[in-house]
Design brief:
Protein name: Ribonuclease HII
Radius of gyration: 18 Å
Structural class: alpha/beta
Order of helices and strands: HHEEHEHHEEHHH
Shape: globular
Helix content: 40-55%
EC number: 3.1.26.4
Number of helices: 8
CATH class: Alpha Beta
Strand order of the largest sheet: 3-2-1-4-5
Largest sheet: 5 strands, mixed
Enzyme class: hydrolase
CATH architecture: 2-Layer Sandwich
Function: Endonuclease that specifically degrades the RNA of RNA-DNA hybrids.
Family: Belongs to the RNase HII family.
CATH topology: Nucleotidyltransferase, domain 5
Number of strands: 5
CATH superfamily: Ribonuclease H-like superfamily/Ribonuclease H
Amino acid sequence: MRKISEEKLALERIRLEGMREFENKYSDFSYVAGIDEAGRGPLAGPVVAAAVILPKDIFLPFLNDSKKVTEKRRDVLFEEIKQNAISYGIGIASNILIDDINILQATYAAMREAINALEKTPDILLVDAVHIPEVDIKQVGIVKGDAKSVNIAAASILAKVTRDRLMAEYDKIYPDYGFASNKGYGTAAHIAALKEIGPCDIHRKSFIGNFVSE
């Protein structure tokens, strides 16, 4: 259990209340799920989506958009979200699927998989920025949703940590690209490795054409 001062807890309650804009708006719904993804931009690895239904009265200090949280804090929140969520689901679309149907459609596929993995059927989906096709549940696309919905913020944490851990495992198999540190993004060192030794099995062929000659 984290030791947090009463002053910090009070400030966190105020901040998090500001992130319940859409949970408050749809408070009549029993199960509100947040959906988010991680990994649309990298040159390698899968795109990962998460769906999370949090209890309405939950208080998770320091919950935020995954990009605004340190790796150490993300790891703590990852466990707290899983332990406290009413339900959560993870969806993964491989680099092969990304190359086959494009990154946007693969992201939608991962999101549908995450929704289908939920043990409870949501009454409404709060989705960061997009509208997911082929889903019958009512959904609301929210620009910068991970700053306006605690459920979307929680989903962003689960998706980010899951993907980062996958990339760390891939680093053990393909150690030449620095996946443990760059997570598949196009850093200078990653691009240099691509140009020198070519792609590995988890690179997205549709993403690396500018760096690898046929």
